[in-house]
């Protein structure tokens, strides 16, 4: 293609993009404003930019509520701008004014039109520290950590600099070789700040099932769940549902038809917005025979919470406090429950990063804490491997009894994983446990948020492994 042909194509491309109007350039950037919602001021921050494919994208941050990167679509006509936020049933309509210095707009939210003036800012704020809850200092747990704290901040400086660039990351703790070598908190949070551990709770349920077997509350994991859920006739009368065992729930192979990743509008979830979660789960269709097909779903672990409640004659949190949390010096755990009083099996439990580390160290020490066997070593080993160690749920992961086995930096590892970057990662060969917490409400980046945190963990494991190799020389 000749010189003049190339110049014509460049000119046409310029005309194509500029055809959106001058507003197309002016509107791109970070725009911040304040609305008053029920008498409370709330910052709204709209980011409008190009992705690597030069496509225009937009998202909303609500830092005072902690909801970040809410996906949006944008359209405009000359100076008129329309931003649609379908996931939260909201929108913004406005106009560029004063030569693009402001956007005068109305924010449509829950039936109200709220006036807002947006002005450009250099950097989007991070989620406010006030959205998180804190516990009173736990002096007994602090003594445990005072005995192992040996900080090596300079050694991990490069990786920690990377960590600071992740706006969703709230904490990272590293135990290795008998020492707590890193304990860092971000976004103005500290060791008393609790995190919604999301699906890390599933791995804790696995521990509770192991303890229930150790304590003879449950005979074995091949028991049918129908015997523990007598008021839910579906598990007795349906031929397939009657075959579901505790083992099937631990393996995520109950055969229930449920899509964990389906999108529902706020307040309309068929399970978690119902009055009786167990009843709603019992009425799900079956997709296949129990025990055959892996299908990740919190509905299965919630059934485990219901089973534990019946088997132990106490609610799941009371059982956990008695046999797991209090022996580990973990106090004041908050855990959401249904209107029927069953604690949510699989999510919505709040722990501090140090409390999460206690769980990691319990497994690293084969179930012992201060010479007390909290859960049997046999259960720990079995729960990590599971019944299908050769079946991969992703490229290098297999699923145990609610623990994920995988490789990190070439080392065998296992983890409790929660949405958005909540992790307990153990690498037994390196005598290492790593805990991270993050804001799970960074929406538009989706799984990338968790991936970024795991890439950071991989870098840390590489450094620990290299340090160990040097020590052995």
Major β-sheet strand ordering = 1-2-3-4-5-6-7-8
Task: Classify the helix fraction into a percent range.
Answer: 25-40%
The overall strand count is: 20
Specify Rg, calculated over alpha carbons: 25 Å
The helix count comes to: 13
List the helices and strands and how they pair.
Layout: H1 3-18, H2 22-26, E1 29-37, E2 40-50, E3 56-62, E4 67-77, E5 80-85, E6 90-97, E7 102-109, E8 112-121, H3 139-146, H4 157-164, E9 169-176, E10 179-185, E11 195-196, H5 200-214, H6 234-237, H7 246-250, H8 277-282, H9 298-312, H10 316-325, E12 334-335, E13 349-351, H11 353-364, E14 368-369, E15 372-373, H12 377-385, E16 398-399, E17 404-408, E18 411-418, E19 422-427, E20 432-438, H13 447-472
Antiparallel strand pairs: 1-2, 1-8, 2-3, 3-4, 4-5, 5-6, 6-7, 7-8, 9-10, 9-20, 11-13, 12-13, 14-15, 16-17, 17-18, 18-19, 19-20
What does this structure look like?
α5 (200-214) runs parallel beside α9 (298-312). The chain has helices at 3-18, 22-26, 139-146, 157-164, 200-214, 234-237, 246-250, 277-282, 298-312, 316-325, 353-364, 377-385, 447-472; strands at 29-37, 40-50, 56-62, 67-77, 80-85, 90-97, 102-109, 112-121, 169-176, 179-185, 195-196, 334-335, 349-351, 368-369, 372-373, 398-399, 404-408, 411-418, 422-427, 432-438. It is globular and about 75 Å long. A hairpin with a 4-residue loop joins β6 and β7 (102-109). It contains 13 helices and 20 strands.
Briefly say what this structure is:
By secondary structure, the chain is an alpha+beta fold.
């Amino acid at each position: 293609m000749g010189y003049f042909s190339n110049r014509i194509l460049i000119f046409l491309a310029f005309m194509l993009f500029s055809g959106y109007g001058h507003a197309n350039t002016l509107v791109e950037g970070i725009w911040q404003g304040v609305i008053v919602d029920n008498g409370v001021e709330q910052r709204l921050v709209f980011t409008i930019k190009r992705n690597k494919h030069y496509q225009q994208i937009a998202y909303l941050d609500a830092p005072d509520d902690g909801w970040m990167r809410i996906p949006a679509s944008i359209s405009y006509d000359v100076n008129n701008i329309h931003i649609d936020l379908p996931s939260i049933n909201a929108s913004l309509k406005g106009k560029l004014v004063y030569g693009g210095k402001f956007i005068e707009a109305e924010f449509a939210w829950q039936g109200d039109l709220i006036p807002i003036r947006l002005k450009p800012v250099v950097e989007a704020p991070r989620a406010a520290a006030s959205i998180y809850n804190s516990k009173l200092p736990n002096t007994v747990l602090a003594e445990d950590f005072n005995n192992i704290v040996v900080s090596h901040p300079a050694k991990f400086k490069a990786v920690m600099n990377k960590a600071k660039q992740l706006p969703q990351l709230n904490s990272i703790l590293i135990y290795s070789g008998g020492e707590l070598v890193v304990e860092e908190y971000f976004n103005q949070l500290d060791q008393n700040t609790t995190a919604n551990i999301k699906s890390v709770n599933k791995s804790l349920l696995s521990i509770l099932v192991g303890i229930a077997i150790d304590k003879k509350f449950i005979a074995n994991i091949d028991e049918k769940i129908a015997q523990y859920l007598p008021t839910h006739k579906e598990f007795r009368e349906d031929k397939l549902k009657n075959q579901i065992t505790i083992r099937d729930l631990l393996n995520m192979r109950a055969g229930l038809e449920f899509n964990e990743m389906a999108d529902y509008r706020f307040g309309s979830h068929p399970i978690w917005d119902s009055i009786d979660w167990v009843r709603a789960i019992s009425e799900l269709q079956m997709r296949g025979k129990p025990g055959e097909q892996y299908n990740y779903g919190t509905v299965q672990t919630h059934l485990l919470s219901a089973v534990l409640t019946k088997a132990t004659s106490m609610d799941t949190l009371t059982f956990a406090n008695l046999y797991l949390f209090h022996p580990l010096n973990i106090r004041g755990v908050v855990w959401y429950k249904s209107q029927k009083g069953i604690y949510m099996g699989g999510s919505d439990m709040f722990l501090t990063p140090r409390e999460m580390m206690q769980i990691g160290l319990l497994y690293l020490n084969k179930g012992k804490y201060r010479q007390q066997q909290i859960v049997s070593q046999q259960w720990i080993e079995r729960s990590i491997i599971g019944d299908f160690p050769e079946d991969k749920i992703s490229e290098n992961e297999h699923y145990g009894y609610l623990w994920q086995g995988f490789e990190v930096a070439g080392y065998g590892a296992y983890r409790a994983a929660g949405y958005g970057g909540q992790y307990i990662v153990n690498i037994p060969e390196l005598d290492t446990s790593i805990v991270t917490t993050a804001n799970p409400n960074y929406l538009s980046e989706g799984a990338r948020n968790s991936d970024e945190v795991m890439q950071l963990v991989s870098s840390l494991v590489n450094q620990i492994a290299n340090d160990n190799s040097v020590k052995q020389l």
